[in-house]
Amino acid sequence: MRMAGQGMNRRQMLAALGVAGAASIGMMYGQEAVSQASVIGSVYSNPDNPNAPKTVRCFDDVTCLLGFAGEYAGQQVSLKGYRPGTDIGGGLLVWDPARPKSAHNGGTIISPTAAWDGTAAGLPSFFSGGGETNPSGSGCWVRLKERDNEFSPESFGASGTGNEQSMVQAVLDAAKVWSVQHGGKRPVIRFAGIYTVNGVLVYDGFVLLGPGGLKRDDGIIPSSSIVSSSVIFGNGIKDIDIFELYVDGNDRMQGVMSDPVYRQGNNAGALGYQNIYIIGKFTNADRDMGTIRIQNCRLVNSPGNGIVVNNHSQASITGNHIERCGKNGVYLAQTHGFNTTVSGNYIRECGFVYGGGIGIAHAHVNASGNVIVSCYEYGILISSTGVGARWNTDITVSSNNIRGVKRQLLDNSGDPESFKASSLGVGIGYTQVFVTRASTRLNVAITGNSIQGAEGSGIACLGASYVAGFLPYGIVISANSVMLCGSAGLNVRYVRGLVCTGNMATANGFADLYIDEVSGSVASNTVVCKYPVADRVTLGGIKYEAKKRHLSAADTKPGVNADCWTVVQTSETLPEWHEDEVYAPVLAPSTYGIYSIYRPGGTAVSGKRSDLLLDLNHVEGVDNSNRLSNVNLVRKLVGGTAPTGLPVRAGDKIYYDAPVSGSSEGRICLFKGVDTPAAAWGGGQTVAIGERRTNAGKLYEAVQAGTTGTTAPVHTSGNVSDGAVVWSFVDTVAIFEEFGQIGV
């Protein structure tokens, strides 16, 4: 006997309660189509003698029902199954003599004078009323349902075997007709099994429910000549709910997508192959836009994107599990997208063609609380590219956990600094490619995210090549933790109105903070330039130490991959090894702690270095005792010369890596010089008052304008003429005023 809480459908309840108990079913399910009286009538009565019992006739399948017209209105029959030899898709049907045969759809409304040979191949014709002998007549069998607005593929012959495109599309089309006939009431389509399709169309107002779903047929291979072949596609959608659905783009696509034709940037051939693609019904005149909700679904193996939505006003994409997509797990496309929430999703291994975890080309987006693991090119990318550029504003990216972003489309130049203008391999990125007046207004907040092991930069905010009138402004980067990234922890260029505060950047390859032509504030960040202790784990009772930085997976498992792990003997209590963790050995300090570029030759944000407040940052250097506070520009922490393009200005505080005389320690100095380097002195040069020249390692400033003479200045105090121009000696020893040492 069924226990409380277990489900029971109408047929099972009839069997359990017996005929006498059937009268209560309508009330228990709250159904609209079947009342208490109609259930009693269908079981007991006939029009001639209401007191005479009447049994419900039973049929094996729909082919047996064809040719049998009802004997009276309300007569019921029972189907064992829909297709011959199965017990799937059966149920109760009632005779409606007034129902036009033109209403026949083969699933919820069946004309007994239509024709079907019982094969799957014959179903498309049957659904459209093929072979109907009385097309202008009336009289159909109407399926009784527990809820009038519910539909299922089984009612149209689907059984989860073979390609069932026609059956699934038939139930969707029937639900659309029902909705129109009921004043726009929302139909619910329940998927109990997994049905193989080529790609289906869904309509406005639909509710699609799992736990079953759809899988793309093996034979539907991507082609650059096909614009779109999404598993689920809806166009002009105002309201749709997709809950707990399983959608499989077919794992055979991964092999297909590795073909070079699909590894070309935007990849038009794969672009249309989404698992779910919903185009909204945006119009400025319609304030009540409805909502697109895709929640708690499992989406796998898409050649293109897992989910695409665009041209809508409100969307909620939450709690989904998305894996192995060729482009993005979620892509908010470029045309008129507003007010979207992308939260609580688990996204893994997306972007193997070109893409990543979440791509955003919308406005008014909240992307928060997502876990993004082992994706390619980027974890989350805000891109003002193409049509949507002018809408790409008011975006919050917060509290996401991003680990192990690969860099599939590597720069092959061998330049270790190629990351500076690249959004590839980043944890979170903003990139401006399509520049318009409206695209300068951003209002973007990137806060509270945890990023580990991105092969490019942890966070990259990249304006387009310098365009004075259209530099983006309004980006907040705060309270993020970025560590073990291959290039920069935070990489910001060609942006104004930046607030970069309270971030933690640890052991990132080139620089922990990289700043290029930025106005705003970079303050109160903490930089730890090295990874001081190697990660150790235990697996199978054996203890291991990491040999290189990597994202753990089956092929980098201890005991399997000797390049990643070495066995250690230790009495330490160690954590168990897990997949999807970033592990690393001891790492030397980042090449630069804070690297700031200023180009005084005319390309600066405003032409004034003071537009960037770079202050109160905390830097840990070679070991844990090396802590600098109130440091602006930090040069190489260990050895090397001053980096090209790393200027300083009067008043900047800097860690200067030339040691104090007789000591191995570097100095913390106050820079008293000027912002621009001096050219070498030479005879016959035209100079203005205040210009500087160097000679023999000494610095001089012109007291007067003129053309230089023939006697190079060599004096070490006062003013001396070179035969034509008087030069004032500048004491370079005093340029750096020491106010502290490091490591003492």
Automatic annotation (TrEMBL):
Give start and end of each Right handed beta helix domain: 291-465
Please state the span of the N-terminal signal peptide per the UniProt entry: none
Superkingdom as given in the UniProt entry: Bacteria
Q: Which InterPro entries match?
A: Beta_helix (IPR039448), PbH1 (IPR006626), Pectin_lyas_fold (IPR012334), Pectin_lyase_fold/virulence (IPR011050), TAT_signal (IPR006311)
User: What name is this protein filed under?
Assistant: Right handed beta helix domain-containing protein
Q: Which residues form a coiled coil?
A: none
